[in-house]
Hints:
Helix content is 36%, strand content 31%. By secondary structure, it is α+β, with helices and mostly antiparallel strands. A 5-stranded mixed β-sheet has the order 3-2-1-4-5. The model has no long low-confidence stretch (mean pLDDT 89).
Amino acid sequence: MTVDQLIGKIYNKLSKADIAGTQGRIAIQFNLTGKVAGVFYIEILNGVLSVMPYEYIDRDACVSGSLTNIEKVLGGKMVPQVAIAEGKLKVEGNVDKVMVLVELLKKS
């Protein structure tokens, strides 16, 4: 899977989620490490979704890990807290906002 394919998959999944009631901003940047490296962000601003292949300067949090592990967490196949505890993902910033995003993905 490429970074662009992952971005498309995440966008499609979040497009089906009920994000209309999400107030304020959630802005999470993802740094992909390993064989497939890259960067993208997910932003929900007052219920409007953006998933873009860029860095997000004014982000709430930054999640770093391999494409496989990030895909597993965002796809609901790996528990985020376990991934963080086992060192499969590294989170800098507001962990609560990352968890809100994960919960939105679970509902889609």
